[in-house]
Structure formats: C-alpha cells, structure tokens
Amino acid sequence: MTTQTSDVILERMMSLHPKIIDLTLDRVWRLLHALGDPQDSLPPVIHVAGTNGKGSTQAMLRAGIEGVGLRAHAYTSPHLVRFHERIRLAGELISEAALTDVLDECEAANGGESITYFEITTCAALLAFARTPAEFTLMEVGLGGRLDATNVVDPALCVITPISMDHQSYLGETLAEIAFEKAGILKPGVPCVVGRQADEALEVIERQAAKVGAPLLIHGQHWHVTTEHGRLVFQDEDGLLDLPLPKLLGHHQVDNAGMVLMALRHLGLGEGAYEPALLNAEWPARMQRLRRGPLVEAAPGAELWLDGGHNPAAGETLARTLAELPPKPLWLICGMLNTKDPVGYLHPMAHLAQGLRAVSIDGVSATLTAAETAVAARRAGLEAEQAHSVLDAVQEVARLEPGARILICGSLYLAGTVLAENG
C-alpha cells in the first residue's frame, strides 16, 4: 500500500514521455499485457467518440442505467478540479486509496518505459474497472478514436456524437480526415449510434462501417428526435416516445438525448431508463448556473453561468442556447488555449453580447494571454478589454451592468479553475 498521494504519482507520470499527446497504441498494449490484460475483463463497454457532446451523452447514459438500478463505471477526460473525476467505479468517484493503488501498480508494471500521461492513467482506469463489479462500462475517447488510448476495448455498443473541426494538428485539416479518426472506434459486428452529422463526416463513417462490418443506427435515418409543445419526441422503428425535455440546458442536449435513447433502447434497458436519463444527468461546466460562492457574491443580482466549450461548433451551440434564455444583457468572460480558434468560437455569440472581458488561464502553459484573447474577440466582432482575473472581470461587469447575465467560457481548463476557486 502506497503512502504517496495520487497527485505525487500523477506528477511523476507526466515525465514518462516528452510529449503530452503522441497518438499510437503500442505503449498502451505493452502496459496492458504487463498488467494481465484488464481490458478483457470489463463489464459490457459503451465506447463514445465525437467532437462535441461526449461528456453530456455519457452522463445521460449513466443516469439512465442507474435509473433502472444497474451500475456503470465511467471514464472521462479532462477533469475539472480533481483527477478523481475521470474515473467512476460503479457510479462513485474513485477513492484516493483505490486511485493510488492502481497508479502505483501501473507505474511499477511500466518499469520506467516511455508512455504518455493519458495512456498510463487510462490503463489505471481499466485496471480499476476490471476489479470492481458493475453492469456496464462507459468509456469516453480522449482524442480522436482510432489511435486513442481507450481504443483497446471490445465494446458492446459504440456512439459517435457530432463531429466538427477541432484538434486539427493531431486529427487532420478537413472534416473528412477528423471523421476518419473518430470512426476508428468502429468494430466488426458492433452496432454504433451515430448522432447528427455533416454530410462529409457521415459519408466517412458509413464507408468505414461498411469496411469493418459495423451496423449503424443513424440520426435522421434510423431514429429521429425533436421537441413539440415543450416535450421531447423520439421515434425509431420500435415506436414513439413522449418524454420531458433534458435537464441539461440547450437544444443540442435534445440531440444528445436522442443518441442516449437510441442506445438505451438497443441495450434493452426498458422504459424505466428513459426519464432518469433525461432528468437525472449532471454534467458540470456545460451551461452550468453558478448559484453560490465568491464569484456569485461579487456580483449580487447578476446571473453567472459557466461553460467549457471551446471550438466553433461549441460557440454556435452556446449562441443558440443563450438566445433561448429570457432576455437579459449578456457579457462574456473568456479564456482560451493557444491550440484553439478563438475567433471561430466567439463569432457566433458576438451579436448577443454587450462585451467581453478576456483573461488568461492560471497555471496552464498553453493559455492565450488576456491580450491575445481580447484581440481575437475584437476580430470576432465583440467589444473586448483585458481583465487581471475572473473575479476582477465579474466585479467590473457587475459595476457596468448590474443584473447582467455573465457567461464564463472558452476552456474546460478555465472552467476547472473557476469551479475550484468558487468552491
């Protein structure tokens, strides 16, 4: 039993490979074999890839599974505040003791060989999952799919959420190239639920599915989802479902719910899973209303919201969601990474916002400076100034426009910092 904390072990693991991202599966297979191949002893796996909506979709899937009294492991990334958020064992966040044990075991089995942080921690999650009873395992792809460290599982079902432009330096410069990487999770004979896709992406998914022999359940072909009179209406070949709207905000969550309902129906979990999936899901930093804490106290009368979306498709989704809220002056507080497209992300929201305060993300080496984000925001059509911190920005907006709606946005790393500082 280790006496070290998980934070110490995780920091040491960061030094095992010079690159943060290096897409290949060789190192993962090597370590998994050394660990006794835990990936072969998992409860049935649902493997989720895509650009946007993976986390929300997984959260609804877990809520539906738990709604009928079953247990699900869940693996997601990145974390917002603590690494433990990435690994849920039978529905509960992994304990510090369990995490340090599997990290220690993976580190010892790896023997100092080169391996990325995400690869070795994914192996740790698989080891923990294999040793804990549950009925399902939910695995979210970290980056891409074909060469992602999670693509060592033999799934019972795959899900591909909407694909858009993101991580071009790793996945390709066109939507077709990115879709090819995402479709790399498809397996022979394993059904895949496919969310709403651009034609260019769908063509790639269909071509890859035909090549490997993976049956597809495609939005707009095999199932449909919409809203009518404040209700969600889902239809497939088995009939019509009339359900409450998802608890998670935004029209895009209706599409996510459609994928979840199709998956739950395919898994045969029964009608008892449907409403819990929509009404019980929790997913922080996705249009999350902040209702208490120092930031809320710094802007009495204001509405504070937090969202971790960070690519142009996420910006379009946010704009649509914001437009559906009751009218109120909107201000943005934004911090982003230098690997993203800030102009493309902010442009859809420019016509909705009174202005923007740009911040850098503390402790993140890849952050854009506040000045760089402010320049990008002006290029996107926003009035923008720099702020020293999120707290300073909130206080300034509260002085300028008491009772405003304030959205803190642009990065999951910024969202994690905000959640930690806001308690």
Strand order of the largest sheet: 4-3-2-5-1-6-7-8
What Rg is obtained from the alpha carbons, in whole angstroms? 21 Å
Number of strands: 17
Question: Between the first and last Cα atoms, what is the distance in angstroms?
Answer: 31 Å
Helicity range: 25-40%
CATH superfamily of the largest domain: Mur-like, catalytic domain
Question: Multimeric state of these chains?
Answer: single chain
CATH class of the largest domain: Alpha Beta
Which architecture name of the largest domain does CATH use?
3-Layer(aba) Sandwich
Q: Biggest sheet, in brief?
A: 8 strands, mixed
In DSSP terms (H or I, runs of 4 or more residues), the helix count works out at 16
Strand content: 15-25%
Which class do the helix and strand fractions yield?
alpha/beta
Q: Which fold name is given in CATH as the topology of the largest domain?
A: UDP-N-acetylmuramoyl-L-alanine:D-glutamate ligase
**Whole-number mean pLDDT:** 94
Description:
One of its GO terms (molecular function) is ligase activity. Belongs to the folylpolyglutamate synthase family. It comes from Psychromarinibacter halotolerans. Residues 48-263 form the Mur ligase central domain. InterPro entries: Folylpolyglutamate_synth (IPR001645), Folylpolyglutamate_synth_CS (IPR018109), Mur-like_cat_sf (IPR036565), Mur_ligase_C (IPR004101), Mur_ligase_C_dom_sf (IPR036615), Mur_ligase_cen (IPR013221). This protein folds into two domains: 6-279, Mur-like, catalytic domain (UDP-N-acetylmuramoyl-L-alanine:D-glutamate ligase, 3-Layer(aba) Sandwich), CATH 3.40.1190.10; 288-421, Protein-Tyrosine Phosphatase, Chain A. It is of the alpha/beta class and 423 residues long. The mean pLDDT is 94. An eight-stranded mixed β-sheet has the order 4-3-2-5-1-6-7-8, with helices on both faces. Strands 12-13-17-14-15-16 form a six-stranded mixed β-sheet. A three-stranded antiparallel β-sheet has the order 9-10-11. The protein contains 16 helices and 17 strands. The protein is globular. Helices cover 38% and strands 17% of the residues.
